[in-house]
Automatic annotation (TrEMBL):
It is found in: Cell membrane; Membrane. Choline transporter. It comes from Vigna radiata var. radiata (Mung bean). Keywords: Membrane, Transmembrane, Transmembrane helix. It holds the Pfam family Choline_transpo. GO terms for cellular component: plasma membrane. This is Choline transporter-like protein. The gene is LOC106776459. It comes from the Eukaryota. The chain crosses the membrane at residues 12-32, 62-83, 95-113, 119-142, 154-181, 187-212, 340-363, 369-391. It is a multi-pass membrane protein.
Length: 454
């Protein structure tokens, strides 16, 4: 585990760095062009065909993004500070937000005659039976990271790094909002900038993920933070690996994991509620197996393998998934809702941030309030996401440790180990009975077909 590590996924590391440098220059140009003087860099001569609005100044809109950054940082830091004393209440709020949000979206989809989406969201809102175990896992994850104050300090530090990048990003975004280009052109530019911010934010969040999970696993393996065998430099080793040899793998995985995980949640929910519609079941089964194949190569548990063993991203994801399937732990991992609960907390933080900036913008320029509100929401989500990923890292570490050696979890918390083992046994029994039902149904259909042909 502590061998000299090779650099992996160097192409994606180079791509990310080039993207960061190139975009930084573009953001600087976009912001400076309207900073204290309209068309300072004479860029409008290239965009005169698209001019439809009265031009403004960068400093008119930049303070709105400064408010978004301040609110997002305050929410993220508050979440981390309250993690030890109010963790249970905060998780319950996130759970209620999740189920209420899905129910409301489901109703709106049915009202808009989007039946398929309505059913998908309704299924998600009714999966209450998964939440007690999810709450237990989240509480234990909070306990794990709260006993490691050094990883909390890492999250605070990375939030400041994100804030510094957002100062430049919002400078360029404010320049776009202030430009005289038509709404369509400005929206396209903001979408490109938002995709870049999403990738950059995901890379920084997953860097924290690797640092935290590496520290947590090392401490768990050595019997706790106070154990004599626990190396004193666990955090520094994890930090060193995350920012050097493993950074390319983090950049690569950050592009795809969130989208594939969300798709998997939806497909699983739909598949479990289809019933006896064989045609629809066949189509969804095909989609399910396609997504499951993607999950083998893109999943959040890869970051733990990257942190501990220093593998490439695809190999880490594949090894983690094969470990879960060979031990049966995939039965509880597949139905874990902790990611969804934490995601709702992240979205909630983004909504608060976007609403505050959007309302202020609407009071001054109601025609540009929506684009400012949406981009501010993304800023808030990235900042709050840094705080949320600390707990998510601990959750993924718990599952990896349990799959590799259940005694690690038993030594750490015997009661939790017993509950986890019991839940795993129930899930495996449920899968076994479901498989027998499907087999019996297929045999019966085959027998009926043979008799009818006679």
């Amino acid at each position: 585990m502590e061998q000299t590590r090779r650099w992996h996924d160097v192409f994606w590391l180079g791509t990310f760095v080039i993207h960061l440098v190139g975009l930084g220059l573009v953001l600087g140009v976009l912001g400076l062009n309207r900073f204290k003087q309209k068309n300072r860099l004479d860029i409008d001569k290239y965009t005169y065909r698209f001019m439809e609005n009265e031009a403004g100044l960068t400093e008119d809109y930049w303070p709105l993004y400064a408010v978004a950054g301040g609110i997002g940082t305050a929410l993220g830091w508050s979440w981390l500070l309250l993690l030890g004393s109010r963790a249970t209440q905060m998780m319950k709020v996130s759970v209620h937000i999740l189920t209420t949000y899905l129910a409301v979206i489901s109703v709106l989809c049915f009202w808009a005659e989007q039946f398929f989406c309505g059913v998908a969201f309704a299924i998600g809102a009714t999966l209450q039976f998964l939440l007690p175990f999810t709450m237990l896992v989240l509480q234990k994850a909070v306990k794990m990271v709260w006993n490691l104050p050094e990883v909390m300090r890492v999250a605070y530090a990375f939030m400041l790094v994100v804030l510094l990048w957002m100062a430049l990003w919002s400078f360029g975004a404010a320049g776009v909002v202030a430009s005289s280009i038509g709404d369509g052109g400005r929206w396209w530019l903001l979408v490109v900038l938002s995709v870049s911010l999403f990738w950059t934010g995901a890379v920084l969040c997953n860097t924290v993920h690797v640092i935290v999970s590496g520290t947590v696993v090392r401490v768990t393996i050595h019997g706790g933070r106070e154990a004599e065998s626990n190396p004193a430099n666990s955090l520094m080793k994890s930090l060193q690996y995350a920012l050097t040899t493993s950074f390319g793998s983090i950049c690569y995985g950050s592009l795809f994991t969130a989208a594939i995980r969300t798709l998997r949640w939806e497909v699983r929910g739909i598949r479990s509620k289809i019933g006896n519609n064989e045609c629809l079941l066949c189509c969804v089964d095909f989609l399910f197996h396609l997504v499951e194949t993607l999950v083998r190569f893109f999943n959040k548990y890869a970051y733990v393998q990257i942190a501990v063993y220093g593998k490439s991203f695809n190999r880490s994801a594949r090894d983690a998934w094969e470990l879960f399937q060979s031990t049966g732990v995939e039965a509880i991992v597949a139905y874990d809702c902790s990611g969804a609960v934490l995601l709702m907390g992240t979205i909630f933080g983004g909504l608060i941030t976007g609403t505050c900036s959007g309302v202020w913008a609407w009071m001054k320029w109601n025609d540009r309030a929506f684009m400012i509100g949406l981009t501010s929401m993304l800023m808030g989500m990235v900042l709050v996401g840094i705080a949320m990923v600390v707990v998510e890292s601990a959750v993924t570490s718990i599952y990896i440790c349990y799959a590799e050696d259940p005694l690690l979890i038993q030594r750490w918390d015997t009661e939790f180990f017993n509950h986890m083992s019991e839940t795993l046994h129930q899930r495996l029994q449920h899968r076994s009975s479901r498989a027998r039902e499907v087999l019996t149904h297929n045999q019966l259909d085959s027998r009926i077909g043979e008799l009818s042909s006679i």
